[in-house]
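User: I'm putting together a teaching handout on how multi-component assemblies are represented. Below are the sequence lines for each component of a complex, exactly as they appear in our records. Could you produce the 3D structure of the whole assembly as structure tokens, so the students can see both representations side by side? Please keep the chain order the same as the input.
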Amino acid sequence: MDGRLSNKWRVTVNESKFVESALQSELRVDGRGLYDYRKLTIKFGKEYGSSEVQLGQTHVMAFVTAQLVQPYKDRPNEGSFSIFTEFSPMADPSFEPVHPGESAVELGRIIDRALRESRVVDTESLCVFAGKLVWNLVDAANIAALAALLTFRRPDCTVGGENSQEVIIHPPEEREPLPLIIHHLPIAFTFGFFNKGSILVMDPTVVEEAVMSGRMTVTVNANGDICAIQKPGEEGVNQSVILHCLRLASSRAAATTKIIREAVEAYNRERSSQKVIRHHTLAKSEVLGPIEVV
Amino acid sequence: MEYVNPEGLRLDGRRFNEMRQIVAEVGVVSKADGSAVFEMGNTKVIAAVYGPREIQNKSQQKKNDHAVVLCEYSMAQFSTGDRRRQKFDRRSTELSLVIRQTMEACILTELMPHSQIDIFLQVLQADGGTRSACINAATLALADAGIPMRDLAVSCSAGYLNSTPLLDLNYVEDSAGGADVTVGILPKLDKVTLLQMDAKLPMETFETVFALASEGCKAIAERIREVLQENTKQLEYRRAA
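Assistant: Of course. Below is the structure of the complete assembly, with chains in the same order as your input.
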């Protein structure tokens, strides 16, 4: 976490000792096992491309927008894709308003790396620019878990990128908005290292994050490919521990992907059923009209 | 595009496991407590270290009984072909953070309470692998400043192009869109402190690329040790004269 903020919340010595000694006997303060993930729920907004994810006590909101811009000179046939992160001070007093902290920048970069560099979105199919605006509201959350959230959150806000062949933007009433082409779903998992790298914990909470000596975020997809890794310095660990983390993460990826896919499917089903009802009522009124005249 | 030709040579004539030429020198900024220039082929980085000195801004102190390490990474306007627009973008903020935390892990901060150490890094020429070069330069500068360290933190990158793992990518290879793994290790303790990766790689391939980068780190560590020993010999010689 960003240590430079003046109003940063600090753990007390007692609290950090408690967390550490509990971990020695493989216990975590919130009662989870060492490699357990917190409960994940996904909700969608009314509009296309907005979502809200909850991982334990961490809430994140994501929103996707698209806009037509000129392509980069060196890549004329590709759209571009950018990610913005914002920490609201409402979520945690250590988040400073206006100025994005180092951690916010790092978070953005991790997601950026996971999603863009591993070519999740088919940029060539975007004759339009898809700018991602991500707005976060974090409730006593750790950045790493946040990163995890945002990462898997984003791909399923599969938005209506406009169907533009001749730079004509069809309004959604005229033509059904097209979903983005998503190649795979990279999912981020964060590990915390305690006690000089000898204790490994998955999905640390904010208290654990303040106590731990090192952190690593691994982004993997369900096919077992590694999409991004971020271990920004801090405590050194053995190579075998890193490879162990990678294996743990890829074994979890399938389950999380399933949760996301199911949530998206449920959402799509609901949306299409809403449309059916609208058509139905319209047809009824047309039929009723002439009858009344008679 | 072909990055490795059938003879197994890369665009700049290196083999897959060959590093670029390393040139390193310490004591290049006379005002600083410690400084170094580190070159890897066409990548050139200058590092200056000030401290340990009294803490300037008390709020920066995280733990009372440890020294504070601050780090600033910046790229010179002339370091790349096209002129760089802003000085502090998202990339350099992230790199400053990553380099700071890597150096923090190797400095014995508990020996210097109530003090701060500043590391300034400037990229003079950028041709891929600037973050590795910065870490190596910072290590040299810290050693030059006489700051106690656990080990020499060294870093090296490796990539994967044309189904070949490649050591120490240059700019052209780096921007080819293949995977890029940057590893930072403490060679004597055999611990990995920094690990960054992007693009997509299957697990087994990652392991080979990771191993290659670690090998590179060890080779760099040896070179850095030589440079420091040579410097110490020079100092000894001058004192005797």
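A couple of points students might notice: Chain B has a mean pLDDT of 89. Chain B has one domain: 22-240.
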